Prior knowledge:
Helix content is 75%, strand content 0%. By secondary structure, the protein is an all-alpha fold.
Amino acid sequence: MAIASLAVFAGFYTLDFFVTGAPPGADGPTAFDRYVGFDSDTIPDAVTGLAAMIAAVLGIVITVVSIIVQLSADRYTGVARMFLRDRVNIGVMTFYVIATSCGVWVSLSVKNSFMPRAAIVAMLIATTIALAVMLPYFAYVFWFLDPSNIVARIRQEAVRTTSAAAARDGNLATLQADTLFAMEELTDITSNSISGKDKIIASRAVDALKDFALEYIAIKGQASPEWFGIGAGIRDNPDFVAMDPESLIDLEERRTWVEWKVLRQYFGIFNEALAAMRDINYLVAIDTRYIGEAAGDAGDEELIKLVYRYMNSYMRATLNARDVRTAYNLLNQYRKLIEAMIRRDHSDAALEGVGHITYYAQTSFDMQLAFVTETAAYDISALCQLAHQEKSPAHDELLARFLELDRSGRGKSQEKGLLGVRKAQVKLAAYYLSVGADKNARLIADDMKDEPAERLETIRAQLERVTTKDFWEIIDRGRNFEFMPEPQRRQMATYFGWLGIEGS
């Protein structure tokens, strides 16, 4: 913009010099000489005008920027601090202040006996830049304060802080406090976005917490032992103050205060979004699973247990709200997390996760949330199948726990839940028969031998009716619970024959 304005002026000035202006040589042999041959009678007013113009532009810039920053600061904590630490913002404001100050000095330096031509030309250049940079700077400010960029900047700052801690570069208490502050800033952005129904920004803030956690887990092993202690800079944080002293000691010994704080933020977000924005609940569950998988990759058993605790807390909050749809999606992520544990040979962790799912399946059964119980049954069935395929040492114990899932039902709602559990068991038995694992299928048959014939016939009829894997509605899981590939479907006759139920 500065070059364009200079080119336009130079073109017209050259035209005036050679065509429409005074004769050549009147004030100098060249156009430039004539231009810088300033008139001592008129130049003081012109220089004063230049200084006033820069000051006016500075006033416009400060007014516009302060309004924009204030609006953002009302919504996102820490924006003003972040803005004032940005090098571009500091550089632009510094340029305007210096140019304005120099303009005042130059305006008083012009004398009849002395013409500071270099200073005046510098003022002209500064004024041109001040005018030309105003619009691009406004564009930069809008970009800088874009919520997605704010989120990314906070995450990057948190990662830099923890990297400095891992490199033992800086005051540990300050680094801990900065890390904690960054996490709470992201949580604040998420909460404000949920209140404002801004799903895009809320999602990015939730993902930023996850990205930070994953990058932290990758460098966690390089940190000094002192980093894992809850130092003076963060001990007064409300989340830590509210904890029992023994729990704080456990947190330090398990070296998980950073991840605990991230997941604590997730838990608060989960509860806030439970009734207002369910998509954020699903995203929190997904990102918590990613953290759990990263813990599995890193072999961090304490973190795996911590992730389970928070997944369980999500599940409890969901059941208390009787939010069946959220429980359905949450169980999907819980199952995927346990699948990751099975594939990574974390058998104990897989068994622990299945134990938790079994507990909440039975709890939902008692709460007459039959669909949640049925969902859990199909998820555990899928886990048993995966454990068998992966030849996991946890398989036999997983199957035993699966067979403990069913209970005698009371009332229509419980009967429906029990029926779903049995169908999941039959589906698993058909898989075992299709791969030649008859012994495991026999275990399921023995568990079902006392079932009424009428119920067994109902189970068989319902399973045989499902011939396509696609449910007739759009679902996140993408597959009908009751669908079985053809090799498994063919085994149902054998299985039900063991139970004395012949095909029609």
